[in-house]
Amino acid sequence: MTNRTIEETWKYHNKTKHPGMPPHYLDWSNQPIPFKIYETLEPIKIPPDSPPSNVLTLTAISESATKDVECLPDLKTLARLLYLSAGITKKANYPGGEIYFRAAACTGALYHIDLYLVTKHIEGLDAGVYHFGPHDFSLRVLRKGDYRGAIINATGQEPTIATAPITIITTSTFWRNSWKYQSRAYRHTFWDSGTILANLLAAASAYNIPAAIVTGFLDSAINNLLGLDTNREVSVCLVPLGNTKEPVKAESDEIESINYETMPPSRSEIDYPLIRSMHLASSLTSEEEVREWRMGAFESRQPECTGRLFTLEVQADKNNGQISKTIEETILKRGSTRQFARTPITFKELSNTLYYSARQVPADFLPPKGSTLNDIYLIANDVEGIPKGAYCYHRDINALELLKEGDFRDEAGHLGLGQDIPADASIDVFLLTDLNRVLEKFGNRGYRAAELEAGIIGGRLYLGAYSQGLGASGLTFFDDDVIRFFSPHANGKSVMFLVALGKSVKRKSR
Q1: Residue 451: which CATH number?
Q2: Per-residue pLDDT tens over the stretch 138-174
Q3: N or C: which end of the chain has fewer CB within 10 A?
């Protein structure tokens, strides 16, 4: 089995569609804890506070810092980025216990994504490999010393890695999500990494720190560096942060294995072989495969516009007046809307959210040519200034194309797995990809990339909506029914993600 055996992706994707997933009973007494806890490693407390950036959200989610000058974040700044991307922002007490809310949305609030970092010596922190523990806002050292050369080697000397003083690595512990979602949890690996990365990229932009997404790497090398039990936890992507004057050289020396005791996530675990099979099939196993990953560019394609066009009414979020909250205010306010009011949002609110969220993701699978793996389709239930109906967003001309006009609230509810949330929302945003073309270009690993990009755009939609006083909720869906609804325009595509947007129902104070 290799990355080019693309039948594995179709096997996984088709078997994890809704409907079709087997009936599932949730054993609440066996629910996994939402943290990875090392039992023998001493915590290194990191600064809880640092000055806010005061950068507006829509600016932060759509812009990236340049690499023209040296940028060496200190521990205080790094701590701020960790808090704004994966930290605990609030707690609530329920009859069943205490619930923690994180900076980024996660399917089922199960928080199966962990952050590690590989760093040179920075102000306040020695060089090493660390795990970030949100539960006590601490780092734990897994390896002492500068291991950046190892990840440069594992990424085929990726330039953004070579000049970064710090690289954050995201991982997923499958069981912490598959407890509820079974084999579909592998999709959530990239959705939930994506929402965290949306926050991380925005926070890095706000603090003027260069950042990028690297998905091409030797899986075994990164997993070994972090000491992961790959039957349970795997590396997902790398995020180089900052910029040094001189690139670090790759190091190919064999790295000693490490294994530290961690608290079991639950009483027992259920294995889902389909997840492990898909991950193995999409793993890169040689330097040649890593180099091939970055060859050429993926060119986005959309059918020619034939429907009525509505040009977005985008407002500048700086100079001409503030229209969004600061990125810190937005992240601390963000939640996941559980009930939408059936009231309209304005076309300007939709335009701002969509335009700023859809800017190109700085990723190694998307060279800087305006490329994207995902196309954006919408169901407008109630937006002032445009007819109710189904739309496609054309980034190149910054306009919505009306595919069909009509009241599709009932259809939106059905497509969102028969839930009230997408039916009540003002707008439902679907991320669709031409999976055949993606797999032809990238092999099985392209499935990871398409899901991840959709998750990042979804995370930006969350931030863009909440920054303007709206609500948002990520949802699952009936895969094939979505394609049928948007066809013939969407013929041959596959659904990656769904986000509902609108005005949240205000809860009554007790």
Answers
A1: 3.40.109.10
A2: 999 999 999 999 999 999 999 999 999 999 999 999 9
A3: C
The pTM of this model reads 0.96
Is residue 20 one of the residues assigned to a domain? no
Q: Tell me the pLDDT tens digit for each residue of 22-62.
A: 788 899 999 999 999 999 999 999 998 778 898 999 999 99
Cβ burial of 447 (10 Å; 0-12, 13-18, 19+) is buried
Q: What string of DSSP letters covers 356-402?
A: HHTSPP-BTTS-TTT--SEEEEEEESSEETS-SEEEEEETTTTEEEE
Answer yes or no: are the C-beta atoms of 169 and 238 closer than 8 Å: yes
Same domain? 370 vs 495: yes
Tell me the backbone φ, ψ of residue 181, rounded to 5 degrees.
Answer: -105, 5
Read off the pLDDT of residues 409-427 as tens digits, 9 standing for 90 and up. 999 999 999 999 999 999 9
Long-range contacts of 484-491 (CB under 8 A, 24+ apart): 485/390, 485/408, 485/411, 485/415, 486/377, 486/390, 486/392, 486/403, 486/430, 486/432, 489/303, 489/377, 489/392, 489/403, 490/377, 490/432
User: Are 342 and 275 found together in one domain?
Assistant: no
> Would you state the pLDDT for residue 321?
64
